[in-house]
Write a structure and sequence with these properties.
mainly beta, ten-stranded parallel β-sheet, 16 strands, 0% helix
Length: 119
Amino acid sequence: MARHGSNISVLGHATRVTGRVSGRGGLSIEGLLRGDVVVTGPLFIGKGASVEGNVRAESLDIEGTLQGDAITEGAILVRASATVRGELKGGEISIEAGARVAVKLDTAREVEKGAPLAR
């Protein structure tokens, strides 16, 4: 994910926000956010960053801390340095070894009736 592209807003390391954040495009969080996030592009929670609230984005890449639920159309990637508590719902969910998670997972993929299950 391009973390600081032309369509990516950044909440820097020294930034502390309380309240709902929403917008078009992506968002890179490097500081502390207490509140919900709704963006139309990718969301990145950097190492050392913390989000306490629910998030909705095109995709989600977590290196820091998320305490809340996440819904994406695309992929959710939980990096080894991440701590996550909540429900993750996305098209694809990956959790790297070493990540600290207490989550409910939902990939929003339905199994066709009568389809064989993988062994």
